[in-house]
User: Fold these one by one.
Assistant:
Number 1:
Amino acid sequence: MEFESKVAAFATGLFLLGSYIMLFDLWDYSIFMVAVSSALLLLVAFRDHKIERNDLAAIGVALAALIFFYFYLVNSTFAPLVIVLVVALAAINAKIETFVPALVGVLTIQFLDVSFLMKSMNAIFLNFSSLLRLRYDINDMGYLVLYHSKTHLPIVMDEVKISLPFYLALMVAGIVLIAMMEIDRKSLLRSLIAAVLVPFLFLVLTLQKLLYVPAISAFIPDNPAALALPLASVLLMSIVIPSGTIRRLQKSGTASMWISIPLLAAFFILVLVYYVPTTSSSDPLVIIDETNSEWEPTWTDYLQTYKQDPVSGTNNYFGLVNFLTTIYDIEWIINRTDKNPAASPGDYVLTDGISLELLENISRGRPSVLILKCVTSPYNESEVDAIMNFTAQGNGLILIGEHTDIYGMCTHLNPFSEQLGYTFLPTGVQDIYTESRGSVSQKGEFPPEMARYLVGDLLWETGCSFTRLDGADPSFEIITRPSYFSHYRNDTSAFFLTREFTEGIKLNSQFARHLAMAGTNYGDGKVMMFTDSTQFNNGIIAFGDHATLFVAMIEYVSSVERYAKTVLPWLILAAAAALLIINRRNALGALVVLSILFLVAYNLAYPLAYNYTDFPALKGEPKAVILEANNDYLEEYLSGMYDLEKLMDKYFQENLTALIFANPPREWINLSSRVEDLHEAITVI
């Protein structure tokens, strides 16, 4: 087929564009692009291959895998990877090489951190700014700021505004495709140069468009105008790719199934065992430090505070802590007698400063979780050392920032976080779509041992941000979708209060996939870093899995592994390597099968986590009431159908904390006093 390579290039580019759009959680255009491109790639793969019994078997297995992932894909950001692997599996006996460029491109979009490439932009503008007639500078956060040529409106540049992940993936996929073609060396060299220049050209055109049309619609890919240049780059790439066929990378034929099948089974079981958590709860003592915090307190008496000031009554942790006292023993560290905690049962220690001896006396050898939240005054060096040493002994530490850096509530955590490889930034991070639909992190983005406690996906209102330093060793990270922007040096977070997002705020902000949460180890202990304390205040503690997340955080940093899994990764690699060696004649097909088995095991780890992790038991009388909702309650709340603060107040008056769940699990029902219907509860407010 003369135009085999050109059809494959166009389909691959279209698939990558659809995959990039999916990262924004936008599906209207992406599903169509992915479906059309998948069909084109299949046509190329089967163009000169007669379908036989083995092909029907492969197609059947691919359909079964697709059905499995359709009903149970824990993290939809992996959807493009799943689709390209499943479609490639269907063509495993045909020309599976057709899907290699798309697979490499999807991996580039999904896993490669392209933000480091933005640093090279500085050198380009430094040397060519006069030629390009651009005015630019570097702001105090180290980001490149360009200015609109006529309005002089500042635009903070980032990889999202110029679609850098897509253009990089297109370039990588183009290079891979050309390298697989049966062409002479001179044509190969010319084509490789063209494959690099096309994405770079459209990167420049996208930048120019942004400077001439400084609007959100210019770079969020949810409208035809924003998609025009990426689609044109796909078309041009297919034109510059030389005509020809794609070279077969593997020969036909398979190894003995009696060897391959046991190896595949071993690989699958090993991955499943590795990802399924086998932790037990240590029933920790929860220690809350209030000595360095004057914001969103945990010790407040809700009724008295709300009576004097409804705003302060809403913005504290009474509802959360009152519920937590039913499953954990809690002790406060305070520096004033008026911080005597209202929630009971509980105890407190009055002190002028934190020392390791104080923390050890409070814990009395019991596994503990220390919580530092809304830190409005810095800890001194000896206190930082004491807290980190306490953590290293095998205790848990939870650091909670805010959605602004007012009073230093984010940056005061840096003496701790920087020892863990992270820096909290003085930012306010917001999703541009929050005005209409909010933003969500899926359960599958959390580790299974945390997702086990979550009921649904986590709703984000806003937050600060933090960045990973060199040498960090995260256990996991939660990263926002690309539509999030960060408003740097934000002290009042006006946009959070007013929900008014001006073009100036948006364009002068850093669009990116911001870090919102991370877990890591320190010595024998575990640490969790979180970016918005407001998730846990009285106003919205019932909503969006906020209360369940707090329990998940405590359980995660205090959990005890039943056995070490350090040897499992090596066994997994050994099984995969053995399978590839045995099937070296069709190693590409073996890699596809291994990848699908890996993803199946990863997804199965989430339901299995419910059977292999402990759930905290109720201590004393329950102080929670579950409000059962339908699956659309997130949209109902965001559309303003009910007043959550008034609803919470109704139950706080009864010394109860309301928790809104769709299809509440039995474990959470056991922690509550009763279950009521959400809509019936709303009508009687």
Number 2:
Amino acid sequence: MFWRYGLFFSILSGGIWGIFWQIFFTVIGILTLGIPLSLEISQIMIIGPLAGILYIISQKFLSIKFHISAIIIITFLIFISHLGNPYQVEDENRLIIFMLILLTSFFIWVSLNHSLYNLSPGKLSKYDIESFFIKFLWGLGLIILILITLIPFYIMIMTSLKNQQSLILNPLDLSVNLNTDFKTLFNSYIELFTNFNFHLFLINSFIVSCTTVIITLFFSIPGAYALARLRIPNKKIFSGTVILIYLIPSIVLIIPLYAIFSYIGLRNSLFGLILVYPATTIPVALYMLRGYFSALSSEIDDAALMDGLSRIQIILKIAIPLSKPAIVSVGLYVFMIAWNEFLIAFMFLDDPSIFTLSRGIMSLNSSEIPQQHLMAGAVIATIPVMIIFIYLEKFLISGLSAGGVKG
């Protein structure tokens, strides 16, 4: 069967990678230049498989010079296929289009190198076929996941740097003129803080989120340790059902909570959010930390008890230091839940001076406020979480308890 040969997989891989990167960089060109560009799918369906055949046949001769030569050949073929493009391109944009074609060729060749490396053009074994599909699907899935994450963020940032006139004239043009002065370029961000008091939203969200993390960890750490270490009646049943509280949709609880908090006067206040948020995050934090505490060696606790330490001292001096990665992970997870929560904040808060970020951004979503201000608010809401995650990433490792007890 022909499909058992490496040559078939080189044609398949080249065709798929060619179409994928052609579509991707054509979309990038449309968003960057703001002009319609043709996809040229029929041409790339020929060029891609040819590149795949070229790679798999010439693997024995691959070198830096050959890689460069192959990319130049693919670039030339794609460039030739674009000569019949019916859309007129201004002279200043021709260099950008050429760079997009060059990037398309480069990524096609890199993708082929990942998928077809050490694959012979002849008949393949079952292991070789499985290895090809694993590498191909893993690479394609990873790239798609990255693009799904980055493209909306790119559009969000570019839109926040535009002015209202340019967005109305050409919504597809997401390029930015870097020659403009700082005040004009970041005008949307400046107006958010000067005209819409966006700094209050940041402060309120920071207070609510940090307080939620502190309260959640204060109750979940000893609770998780008790479930993992102490003998409690029906402990397994309780451990399995505690997560059910987290599975209850917030929309089911919002109406009774709204009625109760309105009655006791806590509805339009940050204190009300600080009471509600930990109630939704403690169960999942308890469930996550219990699993980590259970993995710690019980011999450490036995040795500490023999040395005269109490359970509280064991938690503070032994369990917490050894469980720092898990505690940081849970704390970051809880912080993100509180930082991004919208439904409860939308129902509870009416006073703009105590809006959280999600509630404040929602208030910007109106016909009276330009779209770029809304996108600027979304960018500002995303950046703190990214900074905190990057800073705490070094703590998100496991195995700090390894070697704690000599076996």
Number 3:
Amino acid sequence: MFEVLNSGSSVALIGEEGIGKSSLLWAICQQAGSRLYSPRQSVFLDLNYIDNEEDFYSALCHEVGIKECTGYLLTRNLKAHKNKILLALDNVGKLTWQGFTRGVRDKLRGLAEGSDAPLKLILAASEPLNDLFNDSHDEGKTSPLAGICQEEHIQPWNETTMRDFIARRLARTSVSFLEEEIVRSVEESGGHPRKLMQLCYRSYARYTGGGE
């Protein structure tokens, strides 16, 4: 992800619900200070907590630390801000809901275009941006965000990763799973992190009577 960001592109993390996009998004924000060649202030917004465009711009300005504004003033204030911004938007599919228009996506594109742009974007979505924002298909257009974001598809964990995850979590406890329990959890989860965690918790609860 940092190779893409350092090349000048924004990034869209694409994957099914519960695959780990939010965790990855947060980890990128936490590591950005040491891994971006050109320093940027990390700003994380979960769109599940934002109701409409007005709310979005208010939240963005608050988190960046500038006076609440939109339109040209937003562009001017972001360009004049002491820090360039790495803007992480979780649950970006919310931008399709009532209260949001294509205008906010056009604005984000304008602010994120170019190597010296005031914004670089990391988006988390459950489907490709051109599919998600199908209003962009009018008159043969493509999604304004798809045009500047390199899509990275988040894949399920392989068996080695799943076994390592289980071993690390159990290392903090006095519990050990039987091999058949591990195999069952690996097979039933299909590499889906959230499903694996749920299956492992059920196994763990059988050893502890439901306690942590």
Number 4:
Amino acid sequence: MTTRKNPDAPRKILVTSALPYANGSIHLGHLVEYIQTDIWVRFQKMQGHEVHYVCADDTHGTPIMLRAEKEGITAEQLIDRVWHEHKADFNSFLVEFDNYGSTNSDETKQYAEEIYLRLDKANLIAKRSIEQFYDPVKNMFLPDRFIKGECPKCHANDQYGDNCEVCGAAYAPTDLINPYSAVSGAKPELRFSDHYFFKLSADTCQQFLREWTRSGSLQPEAANKMQEWLGAEGENKLTDWDISRDAPYFGFEIPGAPGKYFYVWLDAPVGYMGSFRQLCNEKGLDFDEYWKAGSKTEMYHFIGKDILYFHALFWPAMLQHAGFRTPTKLFAHGFLTVNGEKMSKSRGTFITAKSYVDHVGNTEYLRYYYAAKLNGTMEDLDLNLEDFVAKVNSDLVGKYINIASRCAGFLTKFFDGKLAFGEMENVLGGAVGSGQTIAESFESRDYARALRDIMGIADRINGEIAIAAPWILAKDETRRAALHDICSRALHGFYVLSILLRPVLPELTSRVARELFGMNRDFTWHDLSVLPTRVNPYQHLATRLDPKLIEAMVAANKESLQPAAESRQRHAEHQQHTVAKEAAQAEIDMQSFISIEDFAKIDLRVARIVNAEHVEGAEKLLKLTLDIGEAQPRTVFAGIKSVYDPEKLKGRMTVMVANLAPRKMKFGLSEGMVLAASGETPGLFILSPDDGAQPGMRIK
């Protein structure tokens, strides 16, 4: 993150997540951000650092005003109701803010006005007359998204005023054919209005942003995108930013400009400051220590890549030129897909947080699954619902919980809950060493790697338990020492695993600390260096995730949106698909045998993995460099990223199809295929030859 003079000294850190808009429910896509932020914050707090995590509802703008009007309530009543709904959703998923505020607050208004006035004093605010559409029925100027009409490119109807959702074309609202107001349906009129602009094109802003976006404050892929938007040195691609809107508008009125309001995107990030000010007032913290220019504290913004433009250009330029500090780093993440596709209401995969809670219940299961997919990059994350069930049941229940459920009972039954310490130094050394490695992964937000390493420890412990078979030892009174030893080592391991998993599973591990190990507090990272001496009687900790709960959740979301006729149509289509599938399978069954000549056509070769690396922008792929005895190694892209650490693949022997036609992919040319096995149970396993096999040997 940052280089500090004393790396062991407690850090002072301010963390934020993007502000959810108060015009809709929290859904599973939103939760990708808040869960990953919460995991990072909890990890830092476990380290003993002073961390403050703040957020707020984004409450201003035309959509809020119009929705409140439609519901016959005030905008203030609407945002208050939505605030409580959002906060309840976050609480359900154990997202623990130190303060959760609202942009419609006195504190946010104070800093929005202060920033504006300072920018104005620095000659970075300009006033200009612009021409825009006006709704003569509603007596209001229309934002681009509230103007619809015929696309000027493909002539699709009912397209928005800024881009066409059919052909993807971008254009100005005035380019629309037969435009109409999405608010009243009236034909809009073009009228002039005075607007206020932040002069982002000014040389001082351009130069600052060129330096700041290259300073290490952005992920490499985000920094590259910023250079595209900024253009080459000497090229001025940024235009001034319109920061005002005309009345009627729900927001803060601009000082000295009656009837003009701050555009919602100006005061939304200022909401970070307003929410933190509320926390300062409550806890007696020094606001300036975190926000003044030159601050030595750390500040991190977790955001989606879709709002990178605002956070990496507008926001730091505003802060810098208004005399405040800029973020230490922005952590941008990708979007959520469900079963490999965009969330869909028709498929029942546009799932709200509340719907998940109502049908599935255990929110830590989703926290774990998301963490197992997050690697600190801007790659999109896929929630595969079948894989979700399998991974939760395999990892959390089958590996982690399995350790305690199999061994803790023997300790309380035969040894009064006391743990043996035959190899205490080795256990402690291993725990501390594992903690250091996994801490590095959590720090860099590579939760996927952290959980792979954690489950690797669980696999080793379960392997030892399987070999020792304590359930057999317990039947032989002469082998009590061996029983005591294996169960104690298993519970020491379970203790270590629980500490390492705490950022991801705060509620479950809190129960482990208090109920099983008798602590009067939750785990800290430093607990890795002190092992427990006894355990209490084991209490049931977790149940397997029933796939029927997921099916019911998806079905409920479908049923709430589909008319009966559509449902019947899909049922008929499903029946036709089933018949076709069965017919196809019958044909496959008839052709299930091949001849030796067919097999001989496949050139299978032993290959050594010379190098393995992540592929930027690819969610599932690793790039493998394979030696098969040829003059030049082959490049193969393999979909094994979710189960293999590339560093651990280097030097390993495997098997590849050497005569598969090369395939051109967007990441490069793939010159073959490595072989892997999978089945109905979770897991993917690449094949390896026996010792002695050399690169290039043919498999016959």
